[in-house]
Specification:
The model is unreliable at 1-12 (pLDDT under 50). It is built from four helices and seven strands. It has a domain at 14-125: 3-Layer(aba) Sandwich (Aminopeptidase). The protein has helices at 23-36, 48-55, 106-120, 136-144; strands at 14-17, 62-67, 73-81, 90-97, 125-132, 148-159, 163-173. It is globular, with a radius of gyration of 15 Å. 26% of the residues lie in helices and 33% in strands. The chain is α+β, with helices and mostly antiparallel strands and 174 residues long. A seven-stranded mixed β-sheet has the order 1-2-3-4-5-7-6.
């Protein structure tokens, strides 16, 4: 499973399944993003063990990494069913990109990968449950890739510097 989406020359060149020994390089990305508290609804004080348990998906889900030509991890994504039971036909996905790799198309490539994966796995669409409206880079990428904002929880996200901002639910139907 690898793809070579449209990426800049400084960006990752391969998206591949997460391997257990990748965690040592994925953890700093997850730690940085979660501790910033400005994009995810995760507790900024979440431990490494809790972070790994949350981020690394078990089947039928999948966790992947975006690996640069030099072997560094530029980003990571996780995907799987949004809910169980009667909601299991809708996928969800989450993405994190290393600070020094942002702006090079990594997040968009990971999102395209998740869309392709969800289609190939037979899902009817992808739902993002909690996209902070202040995360304009992500909202822009998701909209460009066909997602629609289907609702916003007013002041549903406590941003560390902006205060309470809206929390979007975004959806792409296949």
């Amino acid at each position: 499973m690898s793809t070579r989406p449209e990426l800049s020359e400084h960006a990752a060149t391969t998206i591949r399944p997460f391997a257990d020994d990748d965690w040592v390089r994925v953890w700093p990305i997850v730690r940085e993003v979660v501790r910033a508290g400005d994009t995810y609804t995760y507790d900024p004080g979440m431990s490494e063990d809790a972070s790994r348990a949350t981020w690394v998906e078990r089947p039928p889900g999948l966790t992947v990494v975006a690996e640069s030509a030099s072997g560094g991890i530029a980003g990571t994504a996780k995907m799987g069913p949004n809910k169980g039971g009667p909601g299991a036909h809708i996928a969800t996905a989450s993405f994190m990109v290393a600070a020094d790799s942002r702006g090079h198309g990594i997040g968009a490539a990971l999102c395209r990968f998740a869309i392709d994966w969800a289609r190939s796995e037979g899902y009817a669409g992808i739902q993002f449950n909690a996209v902070a409206e202040s995360n304009t880079a992500a909202v822009t990428v998701y909209r460009r890739l066909g997602f629609q904002i289907i609702g916003t929880v007013p002041r549903g996200f406590e941003h560390p510097t902006l205060g309470r901002v809206g929390l979007h639910v975004m959806y792409l139907e296949f």
